[in-house]
Design brief:
It is a single chain. The chain has 295 residues and is α/β, with parallel strands linked by helices. It contains 13 helices and 13 strands. The protein folds into three domains: 84 residues, Arc Repressor Mutant, subunit A, CATH 1.10.10.10; 92 residues, D-Maltodextrin-Binding Protein, domain 2, CATH 3.40.190.10; 100 residues, D-Maltodextrin-Binding Protein, domain 2 (3-Layer(aba) Sandwich), CATH 3.40.190.10. Helix content is 46%, strand content 23%. The strands form four sheets. A five-stranded mixed beta sheet has the order 4-3-5-13-6, with helices on both faces. A four-stranded mixed beta sheet has the order 8-12-7-11. A two-stranded antiparallel sheet has the order 1-2. Helix 1 packs across helix 3 and helix 1 packs across helix 4.
């Protein structure tokens, strides 16, 4: 028979408080009951978990190992409780969706609102991440559907979702006179971009290499917001999704230029899923995402 969760929680509490009496007080039980529970826990595993002294307790080597496993177990139980609470509240199913920041700037929020009105008993759990991470999550089964801007990879199914063209942003007083620019002309500038693992950074590096030009990316940041702020501060230029740049732009901060290259204008966003037959709620939500948005 496995030890109950209350005993495991009591053990962690005693380790954190460095006292069985304090752990008993926190858990609203008597000291004798707490001591018995902990002794039974040790008997169950056949090891001494706590070193008992006059001034308190500390975990033994076995106890240290127990702490790691116990914390992980209780975290999983909490996640299970959270997931099951949705069903207790009337939810009949859950779909795990991973989306990049561009997707959240497109029509996805409106589609989620429409879905919630139409199917309140099927919950959508959303996590934002980079496209490369999302593809791994879909492959591992962590996400049911991924919304990515990435080159389709073997082993997964990619369905075209929306166009996601790139634009260039330059400081407001940048000397380039026209409202559009080719990537080759932009390469004369220092770049601000995401880290080297980002899909957009890798795409720019490939295009620069094809042109036989260096990509002078002197500043790497972790968000599009930081990119826009640094361009506004005249630290360089940047390339990012048009819809994202439009959302960040404020008057007199920076200028948005149409990036004329075909690869930038024809950039697509995909719905990424496994080839396995999809559960009915996942297939239903995937179909919903592919429908035109009705105002």
């Amino acid at each position: 028979m496995l030890p109950n969760l209350d005993s495991i929680q009591l053990f962690l509490c005693a380790v954190q408080a460095k006292s069985i009496s304090k752990a008993a007080e926190i858990n609203h039980i008597s000291l004798s009951a707490a001591s018995r529970r902990l002794s039974l826990l040790e008997q169950r595993f056949g090891v001494t978990l706590l070193e008992r002294r006059a001034d308190g307790v500390s975990p033994t080597a076995a106890g240290e190992a127990m702490v790691v496993y116990a914390e992980g177990l209780l975290q999983q139980v909490e996640q299970m409780r959270s997931a099951l609470s949705d069903y207790a509240g009337g939810a009949m199913a859950k779909v795990h969706l991973a989306a990049n920041v561009s997707a959240l700037s497109h029509q996805l929020p409106e589609q989620l609102a429409a879905w919630s009105r139409q199917f309140p008993n099927i919950r959508i759990e959303i996590c934002e991440a980079r496209s490369a991470v999302i593809v791994d999550w879909v492959r591992q089964g962590i996400a049911d559907i991924g919304i990515v801007t990435a080159t389709p990879e073997p082993g997964l199914k990619y369905t075209a979702y929306v166009n996601d063209p790139l634009c260039a942003i330059v400081p407001f007083h940048h000397p380039w006179p026209q409202p559009h620019i080719r990537f080759e002309d932009l390469l004369d500038n220092d770049f601000i971009g995401l880290d080297k693992d980002a899909a957009s950074t890798q795409q720019m590096a490939r295009q620069a290499q094809a042109l036989g030009r260096p990509l002078n990316q002197l500043v790497q940041v972790q968000s599009f917001d930081a990119m826009c702020r640094l361009v506004a501060a005249e630290q360089g230029v940047a390339v990012l999704p048009t819809i994202v740049a439009s959302g960040f732009r404020q008057p007199s901060q920076f200028r948005l230029l149409v990036l004329q290259d075909d690869w930038a204008q024809q950039r697509k966003m995909y719905l990424c899923t496994r080839h396995d037959p999809l559960p009915a709620p996942v297939a239903q939500f995937l179909h919903h995402l592919l429908q035109p948005l009705v105002a």
